[in-house]
Amino acid sequence: MIRRLSQARERGIPEATVARLPLYLRALNGMAERGLATVSSEDLAVAAGVNSAKLRKDLSHLGSYGTRGVGYDVEYLIYQISRELGLTQDWAVAIVGVGNLGRALANYGGFVSRGFRVAALLDADPEVVGDRIAGLNVEHIDELEAVIRRRGVSIVVLATPAAAAQQVADRVVAAGITSILNFAPVVLSVPEGVDIRKVDLSIELQILAFHEQRKTDRMTGGPAMAEEWPEAVDL
Amino acid sequence: MIRRLSQARERGIPEATVARLPLYLRALNGMAERGLATVSSEDLAVAAGVNSAKLRKDLSHLGSYGTRGVGYDVEYLIYQISRELGLTQDWAVAIVGVGNLGRALANYGGFVSRGFRVAALLDADPEVVGDRIAGLNVEHIDELEAVIRRRGVSIVVLATPAAAAQQVADRVVAAGITSILNFAPVVLSVPEGVDIRKVDLSIELQILAFHEQRKTDRMTGGPAMAEEWPEAVDL
DNA sequence: CTCACTTTGTGCATCGGTTCACAAAGGGAC
DNA sequence: GTCCCTTTGTGAACCGATGCACAAAGTGAG
Ligand SMILES: NC(=O)c1ccc[n+]([C@@H]2O[C@H](COP(=O)([O-])OP(=O)(O)OC[C@H]3O[C@@H](n4cnc5c(N)ncnc54)[C@H](O)[C@@H]3O)[C@@H](O)[C@H]2O)c1
Ligand SMILES: NC(=O)c1ccc[n+]([C@@H]2O[C@H](COP(=O)([O-])OP(=O)(O)OC[C@H]3O[C@@H](n4cnc5c(N)ncnc54)[C@H](O)[C@@H]3O)[C@@H](O)[C@H]2O)c1
Question: Which of A96, A107, A123 to mutate to test the pocket of ligand 1 (most atoms within 8 A of CB)?
């Protein structure tokens, strides 16, 4: 009996691979909607915007789910990737900080689509607490621990001002949360074992500006030769 | 005469370094506000949440701006990093798609702080066009090319629905833009020489879910042994 | 069954990035 | 000036990720 279960996946999928799986999943969902039954690594790679060898290596970390000469079964692969990412279960998400950004996130539909459900909104401002947004009542931050417990929240999205973020993160972690998505422009310090991912608009723009400057420099012939400190700032 | 100008920086700063420079800049600004005149690589590294050797190597790509035995002059380093990133000039940004997210971005203050200025808002919905948001008139997408030219826009933020993103990107690129920040969950295809950065909430959540699942699996003792395809989907 | 064709899965070379660890450089005390 | 202390800048080992290129595996025609 040849059981080739978890052949090449005793444990440990490379981080770079994990970051691409959602991309493959999105491309596969589009294909499933268009009625495709199977797809080759080449086609899927193009749809996901990656190299096909990389795609095959990524998928090989989950197991041997393709058929040589044919490709991958679309539905089956969707299931396997979803399972690997933990999307076959339902994740309750709390958004802390219901300002400009928090509201946009709360109203965002594409959120729910795949396993994630906004289960709570929390804010410190009494003006905001009690508002009804996207079918949810905004609750007071004092209720944080109780809300997390009661709603089974396991992922927290931080959308407070930068100054409040660390303090809120500390409470959230103390309440047992180990996965945080941070929108505030600060480096959060958390204990080992807590995963933080950050989304930082300002950093993205600065990276774009860097490359944009290089491009226009190249046009106008080299950097503007102003390598000197322009004003005599006390040094 | 020993001119050690652009000693170790003939051209080409590693991409990983570029992505961290904004982080250092942010930490340095905080220090400048608190009145610190100099900082060691160790202290700055802690503030930015990186290893100090990495920080020193990163900075060494810009030039030799530290003083052995002392550290780095805070103001001077702020200036050098800002210049390298292109933040000593002013960047005009256009936001295309003024829905939930576009509005939040337009109202976001931290945007302007460092060299970036929201110079135009564009939308296709006649209901939205003409609205006044954050002191700007929302203009019709038909005016895209004219607005980009007139306002000197060089970076475009895409906040349209996924279905419209590629089409808008094509027009934006045709209008001469080479830097795009994309919030729509699609893989955009653009000509070589155009830089795209994407911010994808859904991917971030999925990555968190993956790790969260691993953590709880470990608690409850290995994966739930459900390695089989649960329902007989036609394969 | 055999043969031609397609496509996967992976060994291997390569590359970019990280980290260690230390020589070289500078500051300040005396 | 000399000596000691601090901290930078970087060579070199290491590590993970990428991409080529191909053998192995499967399909389908005849
Ligand atoms: N708006 C954007 O487009 C945008 C973009 C990038 C980053 N950000 C960052 O996201 C965060 C939120 O931005 P915003 O524009 O929504 O700001 P905002 O001021 O509109 O909203 C912040 C909300 O957090 C609440 N808050 C403050 N302290 C709190 C606490 N201790 N506990 C709970 N809630 C608290 C406030 O009452 C407010 O409702 C900021 O850190 C900002 O830098 C925003
Ligand atoms: N809202 C969020 O928190 C959030 C989070 C992550 C990603 N996103 C993504 O950001 C994008 C915008 O999200 P949203 O919630 O603001 O959506 P939305 O529907 O509220 O806003 C989209 C806006 O784009 C405009 N638009 C449509 N087609 C256009 C075109 N061809 N040219 C110009 N404008 C056009 C619409 O009129 C609308 O005003 C979506 O792709 C969404 O998936 C949103």
Answer: A123
